Amino acid sequence: MTLRERIDQVETRIQNAAARAGRSRESITLIAVTKKFSAEVVREAYDLGMRVFGENYVQEFSTKQPELADLSEAHFHLIGHLQSNKSRMATQLFQTIQTVDSVRLAQRLQEACVEGNSTLNVMIEVKLSVEEAKFGATPEQLAELKDAIQACPNLKLDGLMTMPPWSDNPEETRPYFRKLATLADQFGLMQLSMGMSHDLEAAIEEGATHVRIGTALFGPRPKPLA
Ligand SMILES: *Cc1c(COP(=O)(O)O)cnc(C)c1O
Q1: pLDDT less than 70: residues of the chain
Q2: Report field, pTM of the whole predicted structure over 0.85
Q3: CA-based max dimension of the chain
Q4: Which of 11, 80, 120, 158 is least crowded, fewest Cβ atoms below 10 Å from its Cβ?
Q5: CA of 196 to the centre of ligand 1 (A)
């Protein structure tokens, strides 16, 4: 299948799920997850109409970004864990960081934005399964973290993101999606980044505003060269 056909297929899935949930297609942003793929693949997707991209690694994206600087309508979201010592580089590369999970990281990002005279959209990564998730703020930490981010003048808090424990059965991840939606509602946050290639329907039915799709668009990720 070509990339064009895969994009059409994902688009149809999103539209069908939105229709089932009584939601508008416009309320959902498709994030093309391009980690491990080359800058040429990002460009190809851009030329086919993709505008929002998700990358996991600051270092990896810093090598691709110079080749993509002319894609004037592209937005890049960091969806992988961010170490605070890479905060400055991250603020230079990404328009949105979805994985803020500590007050300390928020403060580092704020400082980096002040230095660079920039602003940044952020989401809080929430860990809903304490046993299985490595990163993310717990629901108990959310109130404090939200207040800390909202006290940072250069950061704009958009919503919540989560990465549920892996299951190939979307019905097993649905309760996590529902829980994230409940938390966002409770904290007055509008955006919900949840749902990947195999469970985007469940995520959209539970209120996702951003779905992060890699494999269904680009196929299996290339293995690193030795
Ligand atoms: C890789 C990744 C995705 C995309 O996963 P697919 O199953 O390939 O669609 C989404 N979100 C995060 C945080 C990822 O790391």
Answers
A1: 224-226
A2: yes
A3: 47
A4: 11
A5: 6
Tell me the per-residue pLDDT of 138-175, one tens digit each, with 9 for 90 and over: 999 999 999 999 999 999 999 999 999 999 999 999 99
Residues 6+ apart with CB under 8 A from 211: 14, 28, 29, 30, 31, 193, 194, 195, 196, 200, 203, 204
Q: Is residue 213 within 6 Å of ligand 1 at its C-beta?
A: yes
Residues 6+ apart with CB under 8 A from 178: 206
Q: What integer pLDDT is reported at residue 131 of this predicted model?
A: 79
Please, are residues 182 and 145 in contact by the beta-carbon 8 Å criterion?
no
Task: Kindly state if the Cβ of 79 falls inside 6 Å of ligand 1.
Answer: yes
Give the distance (Å) from ligand 1 centre to CA of residue 114.
31
Ligand 1 pocket test, candidate residues 33, 167, 193, most atoms within 8 A of CB: 33
